[in-house]
Design a protein that fits this description.
723 residues; alpha+beta; 5-stranded mixed β-sheet; 4-stranded mixed β-sheet; 28 helices; 18 strands
Length: 723
Amino acid sequence: MSVDTLNSLSNASSSYLRSAMHQPIRWHEWGEEAFEEAKRENKPILLDIGAVWCHWCHVMDRESYDDPEIAQIVNERFVAIKVDRDERPDIDTRYQVAVQAVSGQGGWPLTAFLTPDGKPFYGGTYFPPMDHYGRPSFRRVLVSISDAYREKNGDVVEQAKLVEGALAHSESFAGKAGDFSPAVIQEIIESALKMFDETHGGFGSAPKFPHPSMIDLLIDQYQRGAALLGTGEGTRSHVDSSEHLKQVFASTMERMARGGVYDQLAGGFHRYSVDERWIVPHFEKMSYDNSELLKNYVHAYQATGSEFFKNVARDIIRWMDEVLSDRERGGFYASQDADISMDDDGDYFTWTVDETRAVLTEEETQVACLHYDINEVGEMHHNPAKNVLYQRAPVEEIAGRLKLSPDRIRELLSSAKQKMYAARLKRPTPFIDKTVYVSWNALCISAYLNATTVLGLAEARRFALRSLDRILAESWRAETGLNHVVAYSDPNSAKRDAEGFLDDYAFTAIACLDAYEATADITYFRLGRQIADRMIEKFYDFVSGGFLDAQLKSGSLGVLASPRKPFQDSPTPAGNSMAVIALSRLHGYTNEAEYRDKAEQTLELLAPSAGQYGLFAATYAIAAVHFSVPHMQVVIVGEDEVALELHASAVASSKFGCAVLKLKFNQAVPPNLPPSLAATIPQLPAVKQGKTVAVVCSGLTCKPPVETPEQLLETLRTEHLAA
């Protein structure tokens, strides 16, 4: 297509918007120009919100937005605006709430109809080109909405006011605060446990999402229960409760990792499963899903010692290293698409029997087909010969059926997996959105640092720190704050200094604290504190408490002036809950009352209703743990083998609210320590004498130093029990 026929999205930066530059619709980016045109011409606005990884967004693009007849209707009757939900989560979240209020539907693509000043009055998600799936055709919807806007404008305006009212009350939490109690943690857990699928693991039914924050919460509470039982203080009910939590998270994680929602060849998780058995996924793979699931598998390995969980964690890192990493400059890419073209559905990831036979020996084929359940008829409706790989038959069962030793089966499976992966790499690869978002990168950095501390992966540690250094160098300015985007996927797209959101600040502050704890480099602590201070300045509501998701500005377009304080995990950890975690950790290092006060006021906003949110308040419950349990620092000072042993012991028993620091002797001095540690650690006689010791500090006081791993574990058991 010639340059002359491109629409204005050719000037956009995001991959999703640029993918629509060829369409015959006169798309606008979100901005004053589009709204002024709508007011000038008195036309309603068609707002499309989607993402480059979204399968049904591509379907609607092909079926409707590429259609010249539909484009003519849109161009004549509407002003069309397209928004990338990854680039502008503030727009997406507000219009999601609005469309759900109108139609009860939400998700992507989001198709909303607005008055010229941006107030929504009707909407939905995917509309087919013809009446289908119980949905009206998009053509019919467009004409009906346009006619209604012209002929029944009073009704449209009234509807827009009703939707605006619903939006104003959805997540502002005005006047809804109550006293915070740690009891809410158990309320949230019990709400989630009622949804646990005893048969297949996970929560709820199809479609089934992983809910990594809830998994992490269950692991933490299991570890606290196990610590209690280890002291002999636990009762029979404690034993039963603790074992039940373990059964819930362990069975869920094992079934996910053996299912098709997990990429059996490359590692890494797809976004969710369309069935309750974790077999058929939506094939897109997101950086933020994999970062949070990486934390799950690392923490589950810490809690259970399961090599299976450890290996899954390593494979997530392997896939992220190979596919979602800018190895040259640092940084994690946003996502990998589900499809290669509009005509397939996960063909890159799925296999026919013939495709399997073409790359394996007969013996390997036999074993692989039994293990991964590869049959002549598979699970994919668009091509029934295609199979999603999942672990159906275990090694021992295959060995019995084929009269071979388990070791031989493992050998054949290993070679088959390597050959199939090598063959898959030669296929056309789904699009990788190489946009580097600050918030999602911060999640990945924290996950990598957590994993490397536990698993000892030096290269992953170096890459995580290089990625954080890049964010801080390219997207952070002390005078102005954080940007939302470090770099866009298309090198030809214009660089934009998009202002950061609450998530960018909260997640990056936490990543800086994680980097400090991984390196003992005080620079990371100072930067984390600066970012958190700027977060308070930009987003904190000094009247009602809590944090707004974005800065409210006079003259905001559409419904962006509606205040929103996010507490629900959807799909990433909630911004307010993560802000509380950052502030609680900073309070532990500084004893600054402001941090704790603002954390408490934020928790109080959701306190009366948090239990009702269940699964979607899991990060709130984690924040409640951080706030309720005295922040503990385990400080190891030394440079010999004993220091390494002490560090390993501390890491193995670490829980939420417990930081582990390993200092060299020249780092155990006031300029290199945060305030609460600077007042104590350098004054210890053992440190002054150059002895290798571990010191457990909790609630701003420190226990006497210990010198052996056994002594350290006993001190930690006592402190965890007291907490």
